[in-house]
Amino acid sequence: MTINACASWLAKYDQYLIISHKRPDGDTLCSGAALCSALRRTGKTAYCFDNPETTENYQEFVEPYLAPSGYAHDFAITVDIADKSLFPEGIDYPIDLAIDHHPSNDRCAGALCLDAGKSSCGELVFEIIKVLCGSVSAEEADLLYIAVSTDTGCFQYMNTNAMTFRAAAELLDLGADNRRMNTLFFRSVTRARLALEGMIFAGLRFYKHDLIVASIVTLEMMALAGTTENDCEDLAGIPGKTAGVLLSIMIRQLEIDSCKISLRSRSMINCTEICAVFGGGGHAMAAGCTIDQEPEKALAMILEAVDERWPEI
What we know:
This protein is of the alpha/beta class. The protein has 11 helices and 11 strands. The strands form 2 sheets. Strands 6-7-8-9-11-10 form a 6-stranded mixed β-sheet, sandwiched between helices. It has a 5-stranded parallel β-sheet with strand order 2-1-3-4-5, covered by helices on one side. Helix 9 links the parallel strand 7 (212-217) and strand 8. The longest helix has 16 residues, at 26-41. It is globular.
């Protein structure tokens, strides 16, 4: 489905529920909130799913759009969700429209608007809103700036391209407060987060002649640092800062025998191919999955999958 076709689809129906993914980030939450705002400006009834895993960082931005208890939708829309495994708890009904930028999208929705060339779903929603409404409000510009900037690590990640900067510049022209958003999301962390980062850097592990770096964040480390879920934004980017590595692996323990895996690469190593082995997906240079094992076993399984696909590394 093209952007124009997606906008036409949205204009045709009503009573929308917009759904963010499990362990939601700025892209899924704020892209969804911006779309919700735009739909309301066209006279539609639209709400965002009240995702129980939304962290404090994003609460103020999504609060005005959350569905009240008992809201009955006619059409369900997912934003930035690549496959069913990423549905949050409580979402078990058919999806009518998926808006996404992940090439690994499982195409399970009734309709799909996908642009894998976008660095974030926020960029795609930005284009849809312009067609749907003919304009973008200042509040929507703020939301979309959060979506774009958080999904590109404040324009540092390798998914950032010329289109990303053009979108960001246009959002600033439309009223996005980049100074506030950059301070809030990239220049301000808690002492607990700093303590956890210190443990991560101290515990980095290197493999394959230092071309692969891995980090494990255990429940014990989280407790010692005093961190909460609000402190765990973009942990995956930390080990990848190491000069000279081709692949970084972040293993974050969620439960005793369950770990969130985040891969980042700078080379021919396709992160999606590795994560797909374990039911995950994403992009070639950034992907994730969940492995129901304790952290050391999960790391061994990831390293084995890498070795099977790229034994020359």
